[in-house]
Amino acid sequence: MVMTIPNLLLRVTTAVEARLGHWVWAAHSALIGLGILISWLLYRADRAKLKGLLDENQHNICPRCRYPLSSLPLTIDRCPECGTAHNPAQIAALWQTWEKSEHEPPTPRQPRF
Ligand SMILES: [Zn+2]
């Protein structure tokens, strides 16, 4: 047998499986499942945190950087953090649409307006 990388991987895999049986595959699958579960829990926690922030600020949060805009004077029409122009009615409509969906919130890489 020519010793190529795929052949070597096959020999190592076969040797590991012979020693450990199918437990290695069960452990591997469990780790993948645990990773998916942790990712989902982190996603839900971030979403709940953002919903709390939206409730505290009457949906007036910068869609680009999440800076709370509710305490700013009405004469200021740009986010002081990132400079994005904002209109409170548009922002509220955007966040209310997001709350009804299961999509990702707007991020700095995806400004909505
Ligand atoms: Zn901003």
Features:
elongated, mainly alpha, 2 domains, 3 helices, 113 residues, binds zinc ion
> How widely separated are the two ends?
61 Å
Main sheet attributes: strand count, strand direction, barrel closure = none
Q: SSE order in H/E notation?
A: HHH
Helix segment tally: 3
Mean pLDDT over the full residue set: 85
Which hetero ligands occur in this complex? zinc ion
Give the class from helix and strand content and strand pairing.
mainly alpha
State the share of residues found in helices, binned by percent. 55-70%
Based on Cα principal axes, name the global outline. Answer: elongated
Number of domains: 2
Report the count of strand segments: 0
Strand content bin: under 5%
Rg, Cα atoms, Å = 24 Å
Which stretches of 5+ consecutive residues score pLDDT under 50?
none
What's the layout of helices and strands?
Layout: H1 5-20, H2 23-56, H3 88-100
This protein binds zinc ion (ZN).
Zinc ion (ZN) binds at residues 62, 64-65, 67, 79, 81-82, 84.
Notes on the structure:
- By secondary structure, this protein is mainly α.
- The chain has three helices and no strands.
- It has helices at residues 5-20, 23-56, 88-100.
- The mean pLDDT is 85.
- Helix content is 56%, strand content 0%.
- It is elongated, with a radius of gyration of 24 Å.
- The chain folds into two domains: 1-46; 57-113, no CATH class.
